[in-house]
Every structure is written in structure tokens, then in C-alpha cells.
Amino acid sequence: MAVSVSPLRSFARAVSMQMKNHRRPPGHTGQRQSGAVWRITPAHAKTTAFLTALSYLGYEAHKKVTCAAVVFARDKAEEVVEQADYLYSCGETEKLYQLLLQYKESDDAEFLWRLARASRDLALLANIAADQKKRLTYEAFDYAKKALEKNEACFAAHKWYAICLSDVGDYEGIKVKIGNSYIIKDHLQRAIDLNPKDATSIHILGYWCFAFAELPWYQRKVAAVIFASPPTATYEEALAYFLKAEEVDPNFYSKNLLMLGKTYMMLKDQEKAVLWLNKARDYPAITEEDKQVHTEALNLLKKLSG
Asked: Can you tell which superkingdom this protein's organism belongs to (predicted)?
């Protein structure tokens, strides 16, 4: 790591200032020369060499300490991220949120987008009051926005910015929500461009298409009034994204299985709808969302069998 002002540079600057101020350096016995430069005697040369050696040793010691501190900080950051990902995989939402909340002032996008995700997951818990849910939703958006500001090349920052922006729209009315839809789609596409193997981003873009394919007529009317070219999509487009997500990472997410079932229902393909809804029903219910998916899949299967 670069040092802003090294000890060697400081030492050279100090010697330079002594000459500029016409001061006789310690240990010097020569006559004053033209240009106000003092003659360097053998004794002074030895002193200078000794001081330079000490300065260099100090610089090397400082460099080693600095490097050690950087390595420790990096290792600590990686340790926290590993711990956070483990808690996420276990569905320990509240513990995860408390862990990452300690790093809310961090400049590291890897902490911030995870904190955005944890805040959002906490807002989705059944025992969260309405006012707290709203606060957490806006909090999640702020963390996602900050993550994106810190690292525009972070695909996860784009993904969670898109998700959290959509959530915020639920509190700000249909006009704002539809207006944000273009921004949401752009960030999802950017996330996929940065990481084509991220099945979640592909799934969410499929969900975006599904949402606009099933947009109620009155909301379409609002969109047509507000926008010259309101966002549109088809169930076929949604299906293509959901299938692509499953191809990239099979069985990665209960909601993708559910959405495949629902999309096939909208396309009147009952056989395939039942196939995917059964998979959604049987998916291990770890998170609160998994439990909601399980319930919805059961209800839809009953509807199809009835």
C-alpha cells in the first residue's frame, strides 16, 4: 500500500529546508559557499548516511506494520462475509441483520448489499409491525443505494437496488411504482451483464415481465396516461427468464419454482403447472418466504385439482 508521506521523503524535505533557511546543519564545520550551500564534510556524510539508514529502517518497519494491518482487515472482512452468508443460508435473519448492522457505515459494497438484503428479509417476517416494516424497507433501499455508489461494478448491488426500489414503490403509489419500473429493469439487466450466472437476477427479470403481463386494466390505463410508451411484457417472456434461471442454477429458489407453476397456469398448460407447483410445495421451507411459497403452492394445487 502506498504511503502518503514516507519517512525518507520527510527526511529529504527537512534537509532541503535547512539549506533554504541558511542554517548550519549539526556536525558541519565547512566554510559557507556561494548560493548559501554548506560544504559536506566526511563527518557529516557519516551522520547523514546513519540518519538515512535509520529513516529507511523506520520506513520498512512502518510498511510491514501497515501491510499487516491491511491483511488483518481484509481477513476480518472475509470472515464477516463468510459468517453473514452462513447465517443467510440458515435463515437466521435477525442474527444476520444485527451482525451486518455494525458495518452500516462501511465503504465496502459487499457489506452494504448484504445489509440491504438482511433489512428487506427482516421486513418480510410475519412478526414485524407495519411501521417497522416500512422503516426497514426504506432502510434496505438506502443500503442498496450506498452499495451501488461505492461499487458500480458490483452485480449484487445492482440487483438489490432494483429489488429495494420496487419495494419502496409499494409505499409511494402506482404512478411512482410504474415510473420506477424502467430503472428497475435497467439495473436487473446490468446485474445479469456483470454476472450471467446469477440465477436470482434472471428470475427477478422474469418476475418483472410477469408483473407487467398481468397488470390490471386500470393500472394499464394509468400507465398509458403517464407514459408515451408504458412498460409491457408477456407471459412467454416471463417463462423464458424463469426457465433460464432454472437452467443456470437448478432448484436454487422456491419462488422460481412457484412462478414457473403460475406462469404455466396463465398459459393454460395445467400439466406443467402441476409439475412445478409440486416442486415448490416440496421445497425445504427455510426462510419466511419459503414458507409463504409452500402455502401458495398448496392453495394453487387445490385450485387446479378442484
From this structure: Eukaryota
The Cα 152–Cα 107 span in angstroms is: 13
Q: Taking a C-beta distance cutoff of 8 angstroms, is the pair 63, 71 a contact?
A: no
**Which range of residues forms the domain containing residue 97?**
92-155
- Distance in angstroms (rounded) separating the CA atoms of residues 121 and 255: 14
When the pLDDT of each residue in the chain is averaged and rounded to a whole number, the result is: 81
Count of domains for the chain: 2
Encode pLDDT of 191-226 as tens digits.
Answer: 999 999 999 999 999 999 999 998 887 777 777 777
**CA 79/CA 110 separation, integer angstroms:** 12
**Which pLDDT band, with edges at 50, 70 and 90, does 73 fall under?**
low
Domain endpoint, select from 112, 135, 155: 155
The x, y and z cell numbers of residue 26, run together, are: 549539526
Phi, psi of 38, deg, nearest 5: -85, 140
CA gap 41, 175 in Å, rounded: 82
Cell of 118: 438482511
Measured CA to CA, the distance from residue 154 to residue 276 in angstroms comes to 32
Of 127, 79, 125, 68, which Cα lies nearest the Cα of 103? 79
**Angle at which helices 93-101 and 42-89 cross, to 10°:** 160
